[in-house]
Amino acid sequence: MHTELYTLLRSSKQLDDLGALGEFCGGFHDVVGYSSLGDVFLRDPDTKEYAVVYLQKHGFPARKYGPYDTVEKFQESVLEDKSFAEYCLKPEAVAELRDRIGDLNDSEVYFPQPFPCLGGSGELSTYSKGNVWVYFDILGQSVE
Fold this sequence. Notes:
The chain has helices spanning 71-79, 82-89, 91-101, 132-142; strands spanning 6-14, 30-35, 40-43, 49-53, 62-67, 108-112, 127-131. The protein is an alpha+beta fold.
């Protein structure tokens, strides 16, 4: 499922699909989606706990959002929550980027260039767009 602010995968992917970024994801094994600004949504298949790894924040902090029986329950309880949208999904920033850079195609996200971990400012004026899986891998390699 793809919205303007996030994408939920039809079938979850494994940490290997994140490339070098996978090592920063703790005990979570399933990638269930990502935000349009490149944060990643994860699930532990054993505990059914979900987490969001905030990739544009220093140190890639992960926040656990509790167990949910289904991805749809996670979506309803977390992704559709207004305060979560303002903190993570940032609808105003996404709208500005869409107007400046264009709509995202399948498997694309917006991201700053250079990455903040490499000295970039993270300002919206520095954003570009590209393939989410390449972005995850390159970002992971950038902090090794």
